[in-house]
# Entry
Amino acid sequence: MKKAILSVVAAGTMIFANAQQIEYEEYKLENGLHVILHQDKTAPVVVTSVMYHVGAKDEQPDRTGFAHFFEHLLFEGTQNIERGEWFKIVTANGGNNNANTSDDRTYYYEVFPSNNLQLGLWMEAERMLHPVINQIGVDTQNEVVKEEKRLRIDNQPYGNILKALKEKLYTKHPYRWTTIGEMEHLDAATLEEFQAFNEKFYIPNNAVLVVAGDFDSHQAKGWIKDYFGDIPAGPAIARNFPKEDPITQPIHGTWEDPNVQIPMQIVAYRTPSMKTRDARVLDMVSSLLTGGKSSRLYKKMVDQDKTALQVGAFNFSQEDYGQYIIYGLPMGPITQEQMIAAYDAEIKKIQTELISEREYQKLQNEFENNFVSSNASLEGIAHSLATNYLLYGDTSLINEEINIYRSITKEEIRDVAKKYLNPNQRVVMEYKGTN
# Structure
């Protein structure tokens, strides 16, 4: 046993030792655009990316879905890129691109051969300064988003799980609605409302530009100044979201989904911001419970007792709050009460007993491996740099975050589980089929 523990420690140390420090330079333009440059000349590739500090939580309660809608709308074209030409230009120049939206931010990026850095910068500057937001683009993307919602959410088994939970976990904060929003809100919005949303949020002083890859720093800075420097800043964005009252009694709910045959039994806890140390500890608790087939909850419920077909736990951390979710699909006639009792039994063990040294070293190894993997590509590095600056307020986390995880103790794992994962602090949800 001692040799096994030592081998796990050695493996984790080797992974961490192989992780290279990510070098970067950051500065700010006069208009407030934050710029981060990371040079890597090992391959003739360059990533240009812009992350805007705008997500679903920046919407109005009767106009949800705007941020995700703009993820699509801002590919429609600009004053200098004709409608329908964006993807053609990227492909014709050997590149690829994508975008995604969360409750907290929207992210756009291109990957080009390094000799097309200037093109990538020009295209993102065009998106920021000269987007064409007209009725034909709004109508087109409205249908695209509706189809996405049908395919990915409404017609997927358990597709509305986050919607079901967030409506119960939040009563004041805008996390209470989903990123994709409600289609009737998009239908009711006027063109002027979309244009106003763009003018408010898609501004240089609400964004970070990251360039990562093979490029000349002096040349890149010149192009960045030329393309982005004259884009006017917008008014500072004030965010004063209401605070949620603590959950002190269990909240019960059900959700019916015609695509579901086996009811999913879920418990969800409101947790602190991803910027807190506690949120990272909860990441470790999740891995301890269901991080692979040797994890506690999976081994107990799926392998040993055969009470569940599937079980999972994850810490969904966000900028203001998080959601810690445990879910399971029961085997046969197992009831909701039996499923939740099984969750609680394993949580209770974590709350009252220190985890073993073997489990602790396995967690350290896993999180070091995750850290290295997240920064194993230029796309991953660009995303990490943007996220760490914009949402965490600390770019240096790209190198330092692993040290936070490494410093988490067994006692903290016990105490954080005891602090947040209690029966009186949660939503209990049955997500079932329609009768």
